[in-house]
Amino acid sequence: MAQIKDVAQQAGVSVASVSRVMAGHPGVSEATRQRVLAAIEALDYRPDLAARRLRSRRTDTIGLIVSDIRNPFFTEVSRAVEDVAYQHQLRVILCNADEDPEKEALYLELMRDENVSGVILSPTLPRLARFRPNDYSFPVVLVDRCDRDTVADAVVLDNVDSAYRLIAHLIEQNHRRIAFVYGATSATGRQRQEGYVTAMATHGLETLARAVPATVEAARAVAGELVGRQPLPDALVASNGLILLGLVEALREARLRVPEQIALAGFDNLPWTRLVEPGVTVIAQPTYDLGQATIELLLQRIAHPTQSVRRVVMRGELIERGSSARRGG
Amino acid sequence: MAQIKDVAQQAGVSVASVSRVMAGHPGVSEATRQRVLAAIEALDYRPDLAARRLRSRRTDTIGLIVSDIRNPFFTEVSRAVEDVAYQHQLRVILCNADEDPEKEALYLELMRDENVSGVILSPTLPRLARFRPNDYSFPVVLVDRCDRDTVADAVVLDNVDSAYRLIAHLIEQNHRRIAFVYGATSATGRQRQEGYVTAMATHGLETLARAVPATVEAARAVAGELVGRQPLPDALVASNGLILLGLVEALREARLRVPEQIALAGFDNLPWTRLVEPGVTVIAQPTYDLGQATIELLLQRIAHPTQSVRRVVMRGELIERGSSARRGG
DNA sequence: CTGTTAGCGCCTTCAC
DNA sequence: GTGAAGGCGCTAACAG
What we know:
The structure is a homodimer. The first copy, chain A, is α/β, with parallel strands linked by helices. The first copy, chain A, has helices spanning 4-11, 15-23, 30-43, 49-56, 72-87, 101-114, 125-129, 159-172, 187-202, 216-226, 241-253, 287-303, and strands at 61-66, 91-96, 118-121, 140-143, 154-157, 178-183, 208-212, 235-238, 263-267, 281-284, 311-314, 317-319.
């Protein structure tokens, strides 16, 4: 493997000149530049990144710690982050915390050890509760999950409002007994539950909410219980795509017809939500845009460490489908 | 940030001793060991990875280059790879080549620059066609995609056999005019097509196969054409989950009832395939196991660079659902 | 504009 | 069993 001094020798210049050309620094004569470039080409020289990082004390690497890589929301966010990062010559280390605070802690230590330039994090609930950007040796931007009083850069959906609009739509469609199943382990689940409660209260309706671990199985079990109640709820609403899947399965098991016997709605515009019969009414998240905005915010923060904290809030889009059709006449 | 000499000073020993303790080398007195450990603890010392990598000339990092991170197959493979890698103190750099040979080439260069310990790759078709492990400066294990005559470590599904069994099942169910829509840009698509052709030929049936770019839209368009034919095919089969989705959409558009008017089957046991009515018959891939086997094969190869090339083939599981119900009486 | 040189933090012989 | 010292390959400060 050729190294910088080989290139210097081949070009008949010093290593400093080679380094300058590589870095695109000004103050190099065009003649020198050309000879260095030719030598680099001839020797197929690639700088040693370990040496460069040691010397320059920067890694040009960012960490992306997502809660659950199986969740399509996060895969789409990851795609966006990766696209933008590589455009900026940044490496990405992707880590999957699996909603486990211990794994999350482990990965954050890893980020410190790797001396990353910055981190994008969708925090677990306990970490978010006591989150302080200054507790970390690198810039952190939160994505998807952020509390009202969290003082940190963040990119999130307007969870409360979106949930409110989804519930208001159901009420509009003449549904009254609306049950809400939400993820207990994430800030988004709680915020969407808050929007649900507000919407119900505004319309003078009683709430029926159930917190569950954010898995298909847990959601199915709770939904099974809910549809066993008398009177049967008018509608079931899920706080995310996985839970929504569990609700659909439970309705299948109970052989309830949607929307005639019970309506259905949720979050996340997954491919299957328009394939099932009838299609499921959902709040669609601008997932790719969320990811893009997050990495861009991180790049800004890295460039300007002292700029004021900013939060980007994106609007969820209500997609009406057959599952929330008007009740009664 | 404390560094090794600070620890040495605090413990009243030399940096060499600290290094030995960190590496778990023998030949260090228990007393020294304890004092070093205490100093490390006290100073919260973390070794600088860039320096260590420069000095040791190893990165303990592996690259994972997948074709499309949005494909749930690859996200599940990634999860497995990551789980096992981090258990072995290895970092993972995940890259998404988007079925683009240029992006793929870019990422492979990145791997060289990063001096990774090894790479897991699901190659694009052109790269696979001329793939030679020796063309790379690091060990490579292929996953998901591998030709019969490729000489390289690989972990794949028994694509030809699985497709054969899927088609044989349809024939068994009295379907005769079976159309096959497969991904033109991947080795798996072609291999599954081969299984289809063999099964049809074995039963003396005429084939009707269509190659498409592996996207929902392309599949839908081609399926739309197929169901416009006279006579209508008895069944439509997809070579992967994305294409299957396109077929379902086309059947919806054409308002064809499954399985009464036309049967349906495909690859990939995605959540929605059991949610739609009727459920879709599929070949389920052991995705997590595939990923696990791949990283384990890579670890073996890294440990034993000269061991003979090996290929792991896993069996797809036929999951019969309503979409392939018996035709006629 | 260009070259010389001193480290970046760590590991690892080599002496003792 | 322990310490001193020389790099790993590169960047950047400084001198010319």
